[in-house]
Design goal:
Number of helices of chain A: 26
Largest sheet of chain B: none
Distance between the termini of chain A: 37 Å
Radius of gyration of chain A: 24 Å
Order of helices and strands of chain A: HHHHHHHHHHHHHEHHHHHHEEHHHHHHH
Shape of chain A: globular
Helix content of chain A: over 70%
Oligomer: heterodimer
Largest interface: A-B, 57 and 50 residues
Number of helices of chain B: 3
Chain lengths: ~600, ~90
């Protein structure tokens, strides 16, 4: 069926794959009509998609260093864009973001701006230059540009702290979905999620992760867009929701007034009866309900964090050229845009489905006992993600008496809106794809940094290829298990840990990376001071605020990267200026990096 | 000024323009969020600030990156720094 090189056949391969997946959805829909149980549909969706990813992972196995670390640097622009989008959009984007917007409105929409605006920084400040450098990992760039093992080691430390915080959240997300879809306890489901993640990355490293991520992107975007379009058409809101939901947004504002949002408050005693982790709507949907600084500081942290997260940056090491790296950033953002511009639409449709008494699905204003008798309410109540209680004792459900978990907004909306169960199964598969693809990228970023930068570059520079790749794989498994073990403890929610990861990365890596390209005078001492002092001060601020500290400048535990990165910038400049300028060889290397033509700074095999 | 210095100066100017546009739509306009929502300008019928956070700024970033990439390629070409083997 397919002749010639795999790379030349990519559009055909993924075209067939997409068609096959659509056929699978239709088959499941037919099976549902024929009486297949909801449980079986969920199991089929998750098991089938995970099996496909594992198969791709197996077929992409490799024994070559540059295939393992950078997919042989031959990933075409558009496909790298898709892979980056999957790498980027995690359980937080897919499962948690629409929920955040649903509950907090404008305040959390800073995430949309931050998680897209950061790509402008990636494209203009970093990606093309790091591609020209020819490194395998981000610490590889820091270590070579600044020179010395201390700089390399510091970069590995920051990378590990940020990526590890991030990966526990993703393994948590895979565990949540696997436990709901396969009906197994969460602390076992976490390891099932881990096993699927490792199957994709262990044998083929970056090459395998690239081709599974493209496959995962296709699943997750289909799974996100179908419910949005379907619900919009079903309730007659418009066939293209993104341009046609203005009336619905206005209607929500009207209903919020009618139901007394913001004027009727729950007493603390009433709220104490609500299960932990569930929330009601307390903020207006489309109003500006937060101070400019709060919005802007969160957006700034997410943007600078985007430009410092190693698992994103390393995707641009896999393109064939500098020019392709630049364009690939544009494609990445385009593919991300498709999902992000849909998230507020999903939040709108979800909220309206629940709130509007004119819709058959609306529950606000109905009697409490009627709501408690609804099938989907019972399911999600059992999963501890939905709760109603008659606080004022009038027998009907008020807006302030309905509570939901953040994850439920995406996962439960298809059911709430009365879509067939096959769509819920599809959404579960999409969430799994989103969390797995990001976890793969992160686990690989950490284990590559440890195997290439610590083991090969610092401990044993004479190691043979085979030995290096074995070390890389062993580390991959160890890090995966460590991540799963911590994920099973459930210390912080998905969205919270992800935001922390951005702040950690921004505190330690943003300025050392950017100044490495844009400021020739930056030297090793400055970079080490910038990375370590930035990370330490950011972490200290987080610990202080978490333990009841007042904070300053309105910087919260979600935006501590502002403090960390400022300390990093100042210390890096001061220390660089009071120590010796980099030697002429280093200066020449920076000049080399700044032009696209010519050889990469680091050789093909290093 | 050597060829390489001229190239870098143009590259840097392009960076400043790109970052200026980026700043306006990622940070600048959100200082005036309340005023924008109250302005009565309604793209596709949405309140203005709401529209910028869920579509406007995001779309502008996508276009901005492709525009930036195109301009940078022109600069590289002008000074003969384009890579030989392109995809």
């Amino acid at each position: 069926m397919i002749k010639g090189k795999f790379i030349d056949n990519l559009p055909k391969v993924y075209g067939i794959y997409t068609g096959g997946f659509l056929v699978f959805i239709i088959l499941m829909a037919i099976a549902e009509q024929a009486g297949m149980s909801a449980k079986m549909i969920g199991i089929f969706f998750v098991a089938f998609t995970v099996f496909i990813y594992a198969l791709i992972g197996y077929l992409s196995r490799t024994l070559q260093v540059d295939a393992y670390y950078v997919a042989g640097r031959q990933v075409p622009t558009v496909f790298n864009g898709m892979a980056t989008a999957a790498d980027w959009m995690s359980g937080a984007s897919f499962v948690a973001m629409a929920g955040g917007i649903y509950f907090k409105g404008y305040g959390y929409m800073a995430l949309l701006v931050g998680w897209t605006g950061g790509y402008v920084l990636v494209a203009s400040l970093l990606a093309p230059y790091l591609r020209k450098f020819g490194c395998y990992t981000v610490p590889d760039f820091i270590g070579t540009r600044y020179g010395g093992n201390l700089a390399r080691l510091s970069a590995v430390i920051v990378l590990t702290v940020a990526s590890f915080t991030y990966v526990t959240a993703q393994i948590n997300a895979t565990g949540t979905i696997a436990s709901v879809a396969l009906d197994i306890p969460f602390n076992i489901a976490v390891y099932v999620g881990l096993a699927s993640i490792l199957m994709c990355s262990m044998l083929g490293g970056m090459r395998a992760v690239t081709w599974t991520q493209v496959a995962q992107y296709i699943v997750l975007i289909i799974a996100y867009l179908i419910p949005v379009f379907w619900i919009s058409n079903k309730i007659g809101a418009g066939f293209f929701p993104h341009f046609m939901l203005a009336d619905e947004v206005a209607r929500i504002a009207e209903l919020e007034n009618q139901f007394g949002l913001g004027t009727i408050k729950n007493s603390a005693a009433d709220l104490a009866t609500v299960p932990k982790g569930l929330a009601g709507i307390t903020k207006a949907h489309s109003d500006v309900n937060t101070t400019p600084w709060k919005f802007i500081s969160l957006a700034v942290c997410m943007m600078a964090g985007t430009a410092s997260l190693p698992h994103v940056m390393m995707r641009y090491f896999t393109t064939p050229s500098v020019k392709a790296a630049r364009r690939s950033v544009g494609w990445s953002l385009f593919f991300i845009f498709l999902l992000y511009s849909s998230a507020p639409m999903l939040a709108t449709l979800s909220k309206l489905s629940l709130m509007d008494p004119n819709l058959p699905t609306g529950i606000i204003g109905k009697s409490i006992s009627d709501v408690q008798a609804i099938d989907w309410y019972q399911n999600w109540n059992q999963a501890n993600l939905m709760f109603v209680s008659d606080f004022n004792g009038n027998g009907t459900l008020e807006l302030n008496e309905f509570f939901m978990g953040g994850k439920a907004v995406v996962l439960a909306t298809p059911e709430v809106a009365g879509l067939p169960y096959v769509i819920s199964g599809l959404v579960a598969a999409g969430g799994m794809a989103a969390a797995m693809s990001t976890a793969d990228g992160l686990v690989l970023a950490i284990s590559n940094a440890l195997s290439h930068d610590i083991y090969y570059k610092i401990i044993n520079p004479k190691a043979e290829t085979a030995k290096r790749l074995i070390v890389a794989r062993v580390l991959l498994v160890i890090i995966g298990f460590a991540g799963a073990t911590i994920a099973a403890l459930e210390i912080q929610g998905i969205l919270g840990s992800v935001i922390w990861a951005f702040d950690f990365a921004m505190s330690g890596l943003f300025f050392p990376l950017v100044l490495g390209v844009w400021w020739k005078r930056a030297n090793a001492q400055g970079a080490v001071a910038g990375m370590l002092l930035g990370l330490i001060s950011g972490t200290a601020y987080l610990v202080w605020v978490r333990n009841g500290g007042a904070g300053f400048w309105g910087v919260t535990q979600l935006t501590f990267g502002i403090v960390g990165s400022l300390v990093s910038l100042v210390s890096m400049i001061v220390v660089s200026l009071i120590t010796k300028a980099p030697d002429s060889a280093t200066q020449k290397m920076v000049d080399e990096v700044r032009i696209p033509s010519g050889k990469t700074v680091l050789g093909k095999q290093h | 000024m050597s060829k390489q210095e001229q190239h870098w100066e143009k590259t840097r100017n392009l960076l400043f323009v790109t970052l200026a546009i980026w700043f306006v739509f990622s940070i600048g306009i959100f200082f005036f969020a309340t005023e924008m929502n109250a302005s009565g300008i309604k793209p596709f019928g949405y309140p203005l600030t709401y529209w910028f956070t869920c579509q406007g700024s995001l779309g502008i970033f996508v276009i901005l990156i492709f525009w930036f990439a195109g301009r940078q390629e022109k600069i590289d070409e002008e000074f003969g720094f384009t890579e030989r083997e392109d995809d």
